[in-house]
Amino acid sequence: MSAIPAPLNRDAIDVVLFDAMGVLYASADDVGELLVPYLRTHGCVLRREEIEQLYEECTGPPVYGSAA
Q1: SS3 letters for the chain?
Q2: How far apart are CA 25 and CA 60, in angstroms?
Q3: Residue 29 region by backbone torsions, left for phi larger than 0, else alpha for psi between -120 and 50, else beta
Q4: Higher pLDDT, 5 or 42
Q5: What would you report as the CA-atom Rg of the chain, rounded to the nearest whole angstrom?
């Protein structure tokens, strides 16, 4: 038996990525209540402040309306 599976003869989506922009969470602190616990379960040992800084660098400042 081959370690590499045979290719499927169909159109398929292998990976789906979601962006949290526009998603409404019940949490008021999505970094502290959602992101930090998630990272901890995956072995992250950074301090919360470091995680917040990296999160802000990656996401940019919050946008509360459009510039008209």
Answers
A1: CCCCCCCCCCCCCCCCCCCCCCCCCCCCCHHHHHHHHHHHHCCCCCCHHHHHHHHHHHHCCCCCCCCC
A2: 19
A3: beta
A4: 42
A5: 19
d(Cα 46, Cα 32) in Å, to the nearest integer?
A: 13
How many Å separate Cα 61 from the centre of its chain?
16
Amino acid at 65: G
The angle subtended at Cα 56 by Cα 53 and Cα 62, nearest 5°, is 145
CB of 46 within 8 A of CB of 39?
yes
Query: pLDDT tens digit string along 5-40?
Result: 666 666 666 666 666 666 666 778 888 998 999 999
